[in-house]
Design a protein that fits this description.
Distance between the termini: 10 Å
Number of domains: 1
Number of helices: 7
Strand order of the largest sheet: 1-2-3-4-5-6-7-8
CATH architecture: Alpha-Beta Barrel
CATH superfamily: Aldolase class I
Strand content: 15-25%
Radius of gyration: 16 Å
Length: 210
């Protein structure tokens, strides 16, 4: 099965265009103001305007106000909502829109139980856990902790060109999600063309090995 790729934390039009050119399946836009990768709706409109078809636009929120999510849905061609906070299933479902729920792999998490709560999700994204940081930690968690789940699994957390092939071989996820691993050093939100290119090649390598 082909492993899909989501490149998250896009803040510039040129990064979106290059990611698509390299074969990214989805682009992630962060609507969480404390994040250094956050964008406004106006910025997001400039980023996605005129992008080619068959590229999913994912809007990431962290415990956002309902009206903020609805405003984003009204203004942008959002394919999937990504909820990366403590949102309940009822919260996620109220928008009547495809969504994926992020679960952080903290100590003692019962992944099977958590996944069963979000049975209406299109996918489950698993990410590293760091207290007080909802995502984008750049840290890898122990992939052996992942259990079989009966829905598409998106693997995040510290992925880069050095480890993504191994991650795909071991976890066999539906998709991988990268942000910091393809960024200009020490400049969160600014993507590096060479790192994107290398990452995409290693995704192919991981599929070949797996």
């Amino acid at each position: 099965m082909r492993t899909r790729v989501k490149i998250c934390g896009i803040t510039r039009r040129q990064d979106a265009e290059f990611a698509v050119e390299m074969g990214a399946d989805a682009l992630g836009l962060v609507f969480y103001s404390p994040s250094p990768r956050a964008v406004t709706i106006a910025q997001a409109q400039d980023i996605v305007a005129g992008l080619p078809p068959f590229v999913s636009i994912v809007a990431l929120f962290v415990d956002a106000k309902v009206e903020d999510v609805r405003a984003c849905l009204s203004a942008l061609p959002i394919s999937v909502l990504q909820f990366h906070g403590d949102e309940s299933p009822e919260y996620c479902e109220q928008f009547s829109h495809s969504y994926m729920k992020a679960l952080r792999m903290r100590d003692g998490i019962d992944l099977t139980s958590e996944v069963s709560r979000y049975i209406s999700a299109s996918a489950i994204l698993v990410d590293s856990y760091q207290p007080g940081v909802p995502g984008g930690t750049g840290q890898v968690f122990d992939w052996s902790l992942l259990t079989d789940i009966d829905m598409p699994l998106i693997l995040a957390g510290g992925l880069d060109s050095a480890n993504v092939a191994k991650a795909i071989e071991q976890v066999k996820p539906y998709a991988v999600d990268v942000s910091g691993g393809v960024e200009v050093s020490q400049q969160k939100g600014l993507k590096d063309k060479m790192k994107i290119s290398d990452f995409m090649q290693e995704v192919v390598n991981g599929r070949a090995v797996g």
